[in-house]
Amino acid sequence: MTCAKIYRLETINLSGMSENEVVKMKGQDVVKLQNELAKVNSGIVDVGASNVEAFMLALAQQPGAHQDYDYFVIPIEATDKKADAIDEFLSLVELLNKQGVEPERIKVLFNKLAVNDDLDYEMRKVIKAHQIDGFFTLDKRAIIHNSPAFAALSEVKKTFSVMCSDKSDYRREFRATPIENETRRLELTKLMRAQSSVKPVLTEFDTVFEVLFAES
Fold first, then answer.
1. Are 56 and 98 in contact (CB under 8 A)?
2. Is 50 exceeded by the pLDDT of residue 81?
3. Which secondary structure element, helix H or strand E, spans residue 181, and what is its range?
4. Hey, is 213 helix, strand or coil?
5. Which of 38, 42, 104, 214, by CA, is between 20 and 30 Å from 157?
């Protein structure tokens, strides 16, 4: 998916990406989206939670339109405390199945799993549904753990991609900054925190990508 164009269907920008890296649309703009996708070799469509219903309704009104998409990757917060979210996930995969989307094209991504939580316990309802219905593909290695990285990025007003490629030695500058310069030392502290926090997230992203699309 090198240089894939990103199309965001009115999601809140919590991805750590700058707004000029995406094309925004509304959830029901499936025809417009199809036309845009025709202009690129690869694209990623980010459907915000508040737009899933409108997007799915528009998709259902065009039989076979789902074939424009190689995969449907559905993130679900990996905690049993979000019972409504789990039910919505199961309803969504069932709806995709009814529209003719094959299980191998529907992939679950376990998101925001707390470091000390057990995936099998937290997602037991999802795992059981997979065993019974088999409407989607499930790999327990497709996990993104909860991370302070994006809050840290927000503090320094930098995108995830920019910070991942940032090679600045903020720690060295911090040590050379007089203690009297509290403002700069605080800025550098935040930059160090952001710089260090994105590294494990990037590694996890790469691992999850391989898990989800290794055979693609």
1. no
2. yes
3. none
4. helix
5. 42
- Rounded Cα distance, 77 and 111, in Å: 5
On average, the pLDDT of the chain sits at 89
* C-alpha–C-alpha distance, residues 189 and 183, integer Å: 10
Continuous H helices in 70-148: 83-98, 119-122, 124-132
The per-residue pLDDT for range 132-165, each reduced to its tens digit, is 999 999 999 999 999 999 999 999 999 999 999 9
Q: pLDDT tens digits, residue range 110-123?
A: 999 999 999 999 99
* Token pair belonging to 60: 């259902």
Distance from CA of residue 112 to its chain's centroid?
10
Q: Residue 79: helix, strand or coil by DSSP? A: coil
Question: What's the chain look like in SS3?
Answer: CCCCEEEEECCCCCCCCCHHHEEEECCCCHHHHHHHHCCCCCEEEEECHHHHHHHHHHHHCCCCHHHHCCCEEEEEECCCCCHHHHHHHHHHHHHHHHCCCCHHHEEEEEEEECCCCCHHHHCHHHHHHHHHCCCCECCCCCEEECCCHHHHHHHHCCCHHHHHCCCCCHHHHHHHCCCCCHHHHHHHHHHHHHHHHHHHHHHHHHHHHHHHHCCC
Residues 176-190 have pLDDT tens digits of 999 999 999 999 999
- pTM for this structure? 0.82
